[in-house]
Amino acid sequence: MDILRDLLHFLLGALGVVLVTTFLAHPDDGAAWRALPRRAAVFVGSCAVLALVLTVCGRVFASLGS
Predict the structure, then answer these.
(1) Of the candidates 26, 51, 52, 53, which has an alpha carbon nearest to the alpha carbon of residue 39?
(2) Which among 51, 20, 13 has a CA at the least distance from the CA of 36?
(3) What letters, b where the CB count within 10 A reaches 16 and e where it falls short, cover 31-50?
(4) pTM score
(5) CA angle, 49 as apex, 44 and 54 as ends, to 5°?
(6) Average pLDDT, the chain
(7) Confidence of residue 66 (pLDDT cuts 50, 70, 90)
(8) Are the C-beta atoms of residues 22 and 32 closer than 8 Å to each other?
(9) pLDDT at 8 over 70
(10) Of 66 and 55, which is predicted with more confidence?
């Protein structure tokens, strides 16, 4: 189950990035905690869209070369 381990590592890293940027963006800790789930969802969702776009581009450009 390498993919599950990789996804877990990604989510742990994403949580660290989102946690730090959320607390740097909000002067009030309460507001930061309330914004954390939305910001984490946007970050992970954006990464998923980027991965999908890169996969599609890779397949399209690979098919052009053959």
Answers:
(1) 26
(2) 20
(3) ebeebbeebbeebeeeeeee
(4) 0.81
(5) 125
(6) 93
(7) low
(8) yes
(9) yes
(10) 55
Q: What is the pLDDT of residue 1?
A: 77
Which of 43, 37, 50, 56 minimizes the C-alpha distance to 14?
43
Average pLDDT of the residues in 6-12: 92
Is residue 39 within 8 A of residue 21, CB to CB? The reply is: yes
Provide the angle, in degrees to the nearest 10, between the axes of the packed helices 29-65 and 2-25: 130
DSSP states along 30-66 = HHHHHHHHHHHHHHHHHHHHHHHHHHHHHHHHHHHH-
Only one residue has tokens 């989510």, namely 11
Q: Which is nearest to 39 in space by CA: 47, 4, 50?
A: 47
Length of the chain: 66
